[in-house]
């Protein structure tokens, strides 16, 4: 899976030194529901759902691994768990080397999610 398209890709997104201090960037920040700066959340959800359903079908009852970036994983998980797409990126439960699992029932429908951080001990202390 690939990261969501984003005009701020590769740029620092901080108040002091990042793109937010440049007024030319502000025109891309008018709609956090879409989001106006990149791939709409609904498109991310559709793309991610298609990938995980394809992976589940190909796995034929076994486990499948799909690797992606933080935003598409968080948006998919939020959709499955019934949360708003509008969120504070600093509060996503999706860290480096974390594992978000999507579970399927016997009918091939999504039955839930789970989250774990097997490499938590490698993360910087806050």
Short descriptors:
about 130 residues, alpha+beta, two-stranded antiparallel ribbon, globular, His_Pase_superF_clade-1, His_PPase_superfam
Helical residues, percent = 25-40%
Task: Tell me the structural class.
Answer: alpha+beta
What is the H/E order? HHHEE
**Order of strands, widest sheet:** 1-2
Binned strand content: 5-15%
Q: What's the assembly state of these chains?
A: single chain
Unreliable runs: none
Number of domains: 1
Give the biggest sheet. 2 strands, antiparallel
Total number of β-strand segments? 2
Amino-to-carboxy terminus distance: 29 Å
What's the overall average pLDDT, rounded?
A: 84
The general outline is globular
Our Rg estimate from Cα atoms comes to: 16 Å
Total helices: the number is 3
Helix and strand topology:
Elements: H1 23-26, H2 41-59, H3 70-81, E1 99-104, E2 110-116
Antiparallel strand pairs: 1-2
Helix pairs in contact: 2-3
């Amino acid at each position: 899976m690939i990261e969501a398209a984003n005009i701020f890709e590769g740029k620092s997104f901080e108040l002091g030194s990042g793109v937010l201090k440049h007024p030319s960037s502000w025109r891309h920040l008018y709609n956090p529901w879409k989001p106006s700066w990149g791939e709409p959340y609904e498109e991310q959800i559709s793309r991610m759902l298609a990938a995980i359903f394809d992976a589940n079908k190909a796995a034929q009852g076994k486990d499948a691994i799909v690797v992606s970036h933080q935003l598409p994983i968080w948006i998919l998980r939020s959709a499955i768990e019934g949360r708003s797409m509008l969120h504070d990126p600093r509060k996503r439960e999706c860290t480096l080397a974390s594992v978000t699992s999507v579970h399927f029932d016997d009918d091939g429908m999504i039955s839930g999610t789970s989250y774990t951080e097997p490499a938590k001990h490698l993360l910087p202390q806050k």
